[in-house]
Amino acid sequence: MVALTFRNTYLSEDPFYLSGVEALLGQSEGSATWLYAGSQATGTITRFALSQGSGLGSPTTVELSGNGSVFRVSDLALIGDGSGAELLASRVHTQQINSFDIGSTGALSGQTQAISALAAPVTQIATITIGARDFLITGTRDAPGMQIYEWQASGQPALRDSVTDHAKVALGNVSDIATITVDGTPFLLTASAQDNAISSFHIAADGSATLIDSFGIKDGLYVSGLDSIASVSAHGTEFAVVGATGSSTLSLMRVNPMGVLYLEDHVIDSLATRFSRIDALATLSIGDRGFVLTGGGDDGIGLMEILPDYQLLAHGSLLNTPGGALSNLTALTTVTLGTEVQVIAAGQPGLTLATLDSADIAAPMIGTAAANSLTGSARQDLIWGGAGDDQLFGGAGDDVLMGGAGYDRMTGGAGADIFCLDDDLPVDRVLDFNLGEDRIDISRWGVQSLDALTIISRSYGAELRYGDFAARLYDDGGAQLYSTDFSSGDFIF
């Protein structure tokens, strides 16, 4: 399985500046990369240098000016590109945005305020570039509606569209905003904590927004306390990932080329996922594979992957340790440096940096409707048989194998492999199951617990049964396996 590797924890000598970090943002210019951390508790932005193979660099901190004694940072965004990029910071329920010039070393300077040009209070912000024009999208957690501004050369926003909340749109108490591009068409996604729903909008070249679709509880999105939304690409398809704090759920929404939303998977937190009270969400794509990172009140970072059948697979979690800072996560972001993906999490009482080696994550191998024979590599493979009676060989590495429809035979090879069983009647075979290392994904069978699964001891290993579904596990050492040998950790439900 794909796993996060811990790199380091940063605990400030003055914890004041890393208290209540609500937003994390990475920025690269040339060969240099930085991380910005915005604090809701202190009204500061702290900058760290990032480099491949290293931990978080020495920080520098700037205080934000504004009305009131503390400018409570609620969100960060970049607008523009290259040497002309600016960092934007919004404040909790205040009609003000601060902008900074970004120097060649990532230092922030030239702080300016946009106040009078704004049409409403701002909490959440996002940016999008259409043609040569840069747009800022704003919403607030405590009021309905959304505004779209064009960012002027003067560094001030000019209102281009304002969308009011109504029965068909999710703009009541906007908890998050994301952008997504499908087949070259830009769309905007909004999440509403009041409506427990999301909406998609098409953004025209002049910045005007057209409602495309809304999806909420009445449509099957059973969530409470909708908090976060992020976009990600996987297997040639675009998705929105939705996190809800109250229900501790993660929902995967497919976005088609027209901007229409489709619910593909809905996961409730468990010990395998560890995103209870989810408050931090990030996504990344490595080639054609898409990953989701989660955090909340469960003392860890969860890592999930979008599979070719649009289901979420929980790879595992990076757990908090004594002296760590993975408790009560409030923000997550990723930065790619060469073949190293750095994952940064804000928790209590500081920041944590973990890594993924993208060079070790192989491109997916997808079969056809025919009988395929697919062989993986020494890397971490994703091998998907599709329809037909397939033979899959993982090779070395921690692989994910799925036979799909038909009588399939799967051999994982060396490493901690995950064998996904399809919800079809033909009996699949796992030919080298290593108990305690490999795992069986039976989530498509509808099994909710180990107690509901029938495990029959066989001379070759064991047979799994649930209703009309069955699979045979051939022990890698030729041993006979018994139901008492298995635990919940051997399965993905």
From TrEMBL:
Compartments it resides in: Secreted
An annotated Gene Ontology molecular function: calcium ion binding
Keyword terms of this UniProt record: Secreted
Listed Pfam families: HemolysinCabind
InterPro entries in alphabetical order: Hemolysin-typ_Ca-bd_CS, Hemolysn_Ca-bd, RTX_toxin/Mannuronan_C5-epim, Serralysin-like_metalloprot_C
A GO cellular component entry from the record: extracellular region
Claim: Secreted is one of the keywords in the record: yes
Superkingdom of the source species: Bacteria
Protein name as annotated: Mannuronan C-5-epimerase, putative
